[in-house]
TrEMBL record:
CDD domains named in the record: ASKHA_NBD_ANMK
Tree of life domain: Bacteria
Enzyme Commission numbers on file: 2.7.1.170
Gene from which this protein is expressed: anmK
Transmembrane segments: none
Role this protein plays: Catalyzes the specific phosphorylation of 1,6-anhydro-N-acetylmuramic acid (anhMurNAc) with the simultaneous cleavage of the 1,6-anhydro ring, generating MurNAc-6-P. Is required for the utilization of anhMurNAc either imported from the medium or derived from its own cell wall murein, and thus plays a role in cell wall recycling.
Keyword ATP-binding: yes
Family: Belongs to the anhydro-N-acetylmuramic acid kinase family.
Pathway it works in: Amino-sugar metabolism; 1,6-anhydro-N-acetylmuramate degradation; Cell wall biogenesis; peptidoglycan recycling
Name of the protein described by the UniProt record: Anhydro-N-acetylmuramic acid kinase
Gene3D superfamilies for this protein: 3.30.420.40
Reaction catalysis annotation: 1,6-anhydro-N-acetyl-beta-muramate + ATP + H2O = N-acetyl-D-muramate 6-phosphate + ADP + H(+)
Keywords attached to this entry: ATP-binding, Carbohydrate metabolism, Kinase, Nucleotide-binding, Transferase
Amino acid sequence: MPSRAWSDPLGEELYIGLMSGTSLDGVDGALCAFTADGRWIGVRRHAALPFEPALRAALAGLQQPGPDEIHRAALAANALAEVYAQVVQRLLEGLSPSSVRAIGTHGQTIRHRPGLFDGTGYTTQINQPALLAERCRIDVIADFRSRDVAAGGQGAPLVPPFHAAIFGNGDPALPPRAVVNIGGISNLTLLSPGKPPRGFDCGPGNALLDHWAQRHLGQPYDAQGAWSAGGQVATALLQALLSEPYFASPPPKSTGRDLFHPEWLHWHLGAQRSACAAQDVQATLCELTAAAIANDLARHAPSTRELLVCGGGALNDDLMRRLGQRLPGCCVLGTAERGLPPLQVEAAAFAWLARQHCHRQAASLPEVTGALGPRILGACYPA
Ligand SMILES: Nc1ncnc2c1ncn2[C@@H]1O[C@H](COP(=O)(O)OP(=O)(O)OP(=O)(O)O)[C@@H](O)[C@H]1O
Ligand SMILES: [Mg+2]
């Protein structure tokens, strides 16, 4: 068999994962190593680039229907591929493209409306994998969600099997663990030794917090949650937000900006707006994110003793404090404490998903997404 350039002398395979999530903050990339038989070794390099304001505005403008959106989506996808290519160049510094087996790229979600078996479901990530392959000369794997939706699933979350591979604890003597990724939306993975992982989207993560901070602080986000920490939770508003039926609906379930958009917040704020200071709304939104996660743990995995937090929300000290308060019997930690920094986890998951595709291995868990069965996810754009 001819030797493959992407398998290094130690027999490792290298993959790149690229994630740009619902926060619309930018792109995280991770160069990841796996053993030849597929065991995780680790992140070799991480690189991140924020979106320029014009691209961020273009992506935000595509989150709801508007004029000329096909043209605008095509231009935004081209611009997105150029940012992805820049992240790949940073990850490759000093390495040949042929040393990487494939790039897994999520694309940017602009609609997420899965429908279970009724023919109305779809999920749309704009992406330009052909352009990325042209720029990088590496196989590009893209469009990871649509096959699961075609099989009747939610197409999300896709990360629970990766969370299980990295953070799963096979020792049945140890108590169950959970992983929560707090990006624009938050999603939870429940890991009980000896059982398949479970998982679903909890609800808003940072998306509404960012919206409110941008509007009132003029900053992309409330750094470390310093502003929300000084506010008072508005109990009536929190109850109104938590009355959203999504929170109590049973898995399989996933959500996005389609539901938890600024108008959803403004509609609930309604009459209460004049009674709430802006800082108190920020505190309430932070509490909402923590409450949704804690309520889901109480409902679906009450024996969880360790909650590992990844995504940008792990850097929000006020959010981490509120999670800790709501989960007194549970140790709340950033994933760095278990070997993988919070901002690298989701990008690394897309490296794992690319590897699964290249080895023709199913990556979806029907127990999580509700699909008819596990499926090989993604489509390949050769180098
Ligand atoms: N220092 C910080 N303090 C508070 N919040 C932070 C900090 N750094 C990042 N964040 C929050 O994290 C968000 C970015 O997180 P992340 O990149 O994980 O989300 P995402 O792009 O939506 O990803 P995904 O959809 O994969 O979960 C920012 O928009 C911000 O809200
Ligand atoms: Mg991000």
